[in-house]
Amino acid sequence: MSTTDDNIERENELQGIGCSRKRKEDPRFIQGKGNYVDDIKLSGMLHAEIVRSPYAHARIVSIDKSEALALPGVHAVLTADDLKPLSLHWMPTLAGDVQAVLADEKVHFQMQEVAVVIADDRYIAADGAQLVHVEYEELPALVDPHKAMNSDAPILREDLVGKMDGAHSKRLHDNHIFTWDVGDKDSTDRAFDDADITVKEDMFYQRVHPCPIETCGCVADFDKINSKLTVNVTSQAPHIVRTVVSMLSGIPESKVRVISPDIGGGFGNKVPIYPGYVVAIVASIVLGRPVKWIESRIENLTTTGFARDYHMTGELAADKDGQIKGLRVNVLADHGAFDSCADPTKFPAGMFHICTGSYDIPNAYARVDGVYTNKAPGGVAYRCSFRVTEAVYVIERMMDVLAQKLNIDKAEIRLRNFVKPEQFPYNTALGANLDSGDYHTALNKVLDAVDYKGLLIEQQEKRANGELMGIGIVTFTEIVGAGPTKSCDILGVGMFDSAEIRIHPTGSAIARMGSITQGQGHQTTFAQIIATELGISSEDIQIEEGDTDTAPYGLGTYGSRTTPVAAAATALAARKIKAKASKIAAHLLEVSTDDLEWDIDRFKVRGVPGQEKTMKDIAFAAYNNLPEGMEPGLESIDYYDPPEFTYPFGAYLCVVDICKHTGETTVRRFYALDDCGTRINPMIIEGQIHGGLTEGFAVAMGQELSFDEKGNIQGNSLMDYFLPTMVETPHWETDYTVTPSPHHPLGAKGVAESPHVGSIPAFTAAVVDSFSHLGVTHMNMPHSAFNVWQKCNELGIDQHK
Amino acid sequence: MKKIAVSFKLNGQQVDTLVEPRELLIHTLREQLMQTGSHIGCETSHCGACTVDFNGDSVKSCTLLTVQAEGAEVLTVEGLAGDDGLHPVQEAFMEEHGLQCGFCTPGMLMRSYRFLQENPNPSEEEIRMEMSGNLCRCTGYQNIVKAVQYASNKLQTTKGDA
User: Fold this and answer.
1) Which of A39, A536, A634, B83 is in Cβ range 3.0-4.6 Å of B36 for a Cys bridge?
2) What does DSSP assign to residue B116?
3) Would you state the torsion angle of the CA atoms of residues A148, A151, A156, A157, taken in this order, to the nearest 10 degrees?
4) Domain spanning A37-139+215-263+270-303 has what CATH number?
5) Same fold, A3-34+497-640 and A385-479+644-794
């Protein structure tokens, strides 16, 4: 066998970076052996059911729990009055606000948590909840955020009246939460004053919900003898849950064990800490028995973790050739009754400052005002990095509006304004530091692949026949991988992440990270990273996450941060091992480390064939034959504080046909090109992209949590809330370019959220483009058949002539 | 509440249970019989995570009272693999990356298992239509379609061999 063949064989053996390795998670899932929170059944376990408010805004006059307590099998009924002595009736949110655990004198949104019934099983708990009688005095509800700061608006948060120093800024009204702004307002205003042309568009990014198929839940188990609390919880951030639980309960963090077992999808819904978790923990401490709380689908859609709800106004200033001179964005953010957004502390509008997109925009200014309304709290990042979806939506929509105004092709106006490859790293006018990119290549590749010119000709022909066909183009740039601890923290804990690797004497390994997989396949891909770094076969590397008693502290998995942060920690932890291994190899081979070269899975003495030690040889030696003075063992840990965010990008093109009589939209073609830098497992990347595109399709085409004037939620079951089935879901075409991140140890940027972020404005763009020849510049989501038909009707094109 | 004795066959084994008349089959499977492979995603028969095979039909077990299972033959994901290894639909989902978080997977597998007996050689359109009672939030379905096609081929090849 030649050396080259041998190398290829050894390389293949590793199943390292770049290999479409089959997933190690799958064998247990396909045999029904997953271990999700609701699968956990502990001896003596009780069940919690929450009593919820029917009103969006009301005073609680009285709560009568006697009948519920009399029901056989009910062990306790807790209300805010029961939690008060423990100071647990309110809890801090991740956004610097407080949130009622159980409603304290007032309810602020429909289905707010008012009481909790603890009973022998879920049926008795549900019966008990029906027997808790709450008397309410209904108050006028504030539903429209545009009216939140009116002088006659009902005041929602009586606990904050007169406290005008908010967590992020001065508060301008009792219903105001914060003003956050970024950029140079004066220079931007001047750019608008001096511009040849300006465009402006109002758009509403509706309230939606991530809706993973598994709802949220937990099993809390307080061991009275050892004073140790174990909480199995559906959390994307178990270590932060441990810290918060310790802070709230007073139990030392060393005696709080939080486990995120298998998680049935998260998509941002499972980042915050919810009242249901807290009441289950309190009940377990009070009763000394394990307590399980699992929310129903309706509870999930109504109360835990909505996303978006941004009322945005975008403005662009440009010269007559379409060269952008300025961007102005103004946002009214509806945060609901408590500010429980899950953003890094200093970013109340998340990473919204990425709203300059992929473009070289010299002047920009963005302002976001958050207000309270009588709706559920949330504001989570639904498959995106902290408001990046909203930011990408506003800039991509505005690019189209500008192109339309100037009668310049949508692809052309993007090509004219892209940051050029030689401009990287590029500092945007709003303070993002784009690490790398090649936007022109990406877009041109897509235009060629779909025969864009041919599509434009076809569209002209269709329009001449009175048919509606739209082409949407989006060229997005994300900001992910939160983040550098100098700017990013959650409750004061810096947003680093971690990996610990142990190499056993026989050469196999176990590694643990501070992240937690929810379907992304970490057990597969992290092993691939270590395999390539250390020359140990992926099959011999076990990956564990999610148990705070064993895993190193990390900030969890959301905001596409795992590859940028935890995977970097994994690579660097492996490199620490490799550095020690090289010394052991030099010792074994009786040479200097300078004489060694690394070759796939072994160190070789340069120029001396046959003089080599494999990582397996070295692992054994680490436990019995070490250089003088060296500590035994082969282990390492790395806490990675990223120097910068990463900036994945992509170019998407969507083609739709719309029936003008019914408003039905058919996605004929969707071509998604992503650049996430180095690709660790192409099979998993493609799967993540399919999933993100489908969630984007759901948001754009049908998802919406809407409310009537009394704050009643309209449609909170899967009967009403749109989750696409296989029938509606389009066929996806995927493609890629590779522009590595210069500052990431592997060059990787993160990928799973790009397709969600990028596809949503592409669907809107395609739908709007179907009507652009009729003067339409924007249509709000969701683009349901009814909404689109209304546009056809308004334009008078829906009738057979 | 008075309980009723219900006996049925689960994955080939006779089981005897005592349930309230209102108890749903999914709860009996998961909480009494400890077969937690079938999941609960909505309890309103929309998501299909609880799909089991019930007397030869795909049934959402959150919408069936356990008392209705008297004398029935019920197959869940735990009973799919045989002595000779994984069922072809299980192998197919793994080969084609037809799952991510795994929560919808048992329902998807049970539906594929039945569907491929009803229609051994389906078109993509037929797969998408006949599997549309099962929702997935992770995969975007494209690889699930491929997995069902893979299983269809494998089942037909195996049949041919036999």
Assistant:
1) A39
2) H
3) 110
4) 3.90.1170.50
5) yes
Whether the full predicted model's pTM is greater than 0.90, yes or no, is yes
Tokens of residue A157, six digits:
């948060």
Please report, for residues A387, A496, A699, B53, the alpha-carbon distance to residue A754 in angstroms, rounded to integers and kept in the order given.
Answer: 13, 21, 14, 37
For the stretch A233-265, pLDDT in tens is 999 999 999 999 999 999 999 999 999 999 999
Among A612, A604, A130, A93, CA closest to A370: A93
- At the topology level, CATH places domain A3-34+497-640 in Aldehyde Oxidoreductase; domain 4 (3.30.365)
Q: What is the CATH number of domain B4-79?
A: 3.10.20.30
Q: Which of residues 4-43 of B touch A (CB under 8 A)?
A: 20, 22-23, 27, 30-31, 34-43
Dist. CA A78–CA A71, nearest whole Å = 15
Q: Which chain A residues have a beta carbon less than 8 Å from that of B100?
A: 265, 519-521, 687-688, 691
DSSP string for residues in A633-668: --EEEEEE--SS-B--EEEEEEEEEE-TTT--EEEE
C-alpha torsion sign, points A320, A322, A328, A332: positive
Domain boundaries defined on chain A: 3-34+497-640, 37-139+215-263+270-303, 385-479+644-794
Dihedral over Cα of A530, A534, A538, A543: its sign: negative
User: Whole-angstrom Cα distance, residue B63 to residue A544?
Assistant: 36
Choosing from A383, A414, A561, A602, the catalytic residue is A383
Residue extents of the structural domains in chain B: 4-79, 88-161
Return phi, psi of residue A199, to 5°. -130, 155
Among candidates A488, A167, A557, which has minimal Cα distance to A340? A167
- Which three-class secondary structure state does DSSP give residue A370? strand
pLDDT of residue A454: 98
**Which position has the token pair 């009723």?**
B4
Q: Are A123 and B22 in contact (CB under 8 A)?
A: yes
| pLDDT greater than 90 at residue A3 | no
What ipTM score was computed for the predicted complex, to two decimals? 0.98
Q: Give the domain B88-161 fold.
A: DNA polymerase; domain 1 (1.10.150)
Known catalytic residue at A384: yes
Which CATH architecture best describes the domain A385-479+644-794? Answer: 2-Layer Sandwich (3.30)
Kindly state the tokens that stand for A716: 């909170």
Q: Is B86 on the interface with A (CB under 8 A)?
A: yes
User: Which residue intervals of A375-438 are DSSP H helices?
Assistant: 388-406, 410-417
A583 burial level (CB within 10 Å; 0-12, 13-18, 19+): middle
Q: Helix, strand, or coil here: A92?
A: strand
Please name the amino acid found at residue A497.
D
User: Going edge to edge, which strands form the sheet with B51-54?
Assistant: B13-19, B4-10, B73-75, B51-54, B57-60
For the segment A278-303, the average pLDDT, to the nearest whole number, is: 97
SS3 state of residue A359: strand
Residue A201 in contact with residue A325, Cβ under 8 Å? no
pLDDT band at A1 (very low <50, low <70, confident <90, very high): very low
Rg of chain A over Cα atoms, rounded to whole angstroms, equals: 28
